[in-house]
Amino acid sequence: MKINPYIFRGYDLRGIVDKDLNPEIVEHLGKAYGTFLIKRGIKKAAVGYDCRLSSESYSEAIIRGLLATGVDVIDIGLALAGNVYWAQYYFKAPGCVLTSGSHNPANYNGFKFGTGFSATMVADEIQELRQIAEKGEFNQGEGELEKKDIKEEYFNDLIKRFSVPFNFKVVVDPSHSTPGAFVPELLKKAGCQVICNNCELDGTFPIGTPDPTEKKIAERLVKKILEEKADLGFSYDSDGDRLGAVDDKGNILWNDILVALFAADALERNPGTKIVFNTLCSKVVQDAIRLKRGQAVMWRTGHSFIKAKAQQEKAVFAGELSGHFYFLDKFYPHDDGCYSTLALLSYLSRTKKTLSQAVADLP
Known about the structure:
single chain; alpha/beta; Alpha-D-Glucose-1,6-Bisphosphate, Chain A, domain 3; 7-stranded mixed β-sheet; 5-stranded mixed β-sheet; globular
């Protein structure tokens, strides 16, 4: 089968719907990934998908491919990246697949493939997957399929990890993407008053691509926060592993500010330990780490690279300018926008500061 080599990226697969990807190609990729897993002795995978129009059918194709190679599948349905990674632990499934185009336009889709608990493919593993797909010699077997709804268990686990009240008025703007089906419900369950802005799911992304680094999305948050006199607001990408934030005064925060805040907080708990961050972060991150006498480790951009480096260095926290955050001393070692949201609210609750005050206190 001819597959456009362009879809095999640095740490995931991405392509144009109906041009680079269709159900037949995706099932072929599912067989390649199943063979990749079986070679490593992995026989179970958690699978989910985002709200793009093509995602459910592509996820079904991935599942057919996995089952045909003898891999057992837990299908959790509509999901965020954090749901899928969390499901790995809940179901003891070292493999995972998320069908999502992340922050790409609606006519794109893609896949994040797991290589172990909280671990996703890096460049050499992506190329190995490509070689398996191009060769077309797949393992054969009969995997078993289970469908599970884990939303309630996932929410309960996240909330119980924090022991502070969440008495905040929060604006949530996921740009009609998948977090709209999760974040407002989670925050309400945690005790927040939630103002939803563009939370209804629409896989065509009618107001633009969901990307928390986009200025126009942040400006929408600013307007709503000031109108509602909210404490802060959050935006997300379509698979919910990244976030953006605006403070109580309507200031748009670069995510390296949040990296600095989270790093300083982690070092309060773990003096002298390591913090990993990517090369795009500004000096504010290193200054915050040095002030708390931590060890700063700068590394290459990309969620798979940062995640792997953080575990290699035994870091207590890692973060990227793009809005990926990893709380390795308190949570599983993967990026989860829902957990990151609660972590920031918890920090503000514990310190009794507004977000604008917390930022002003950074070095």
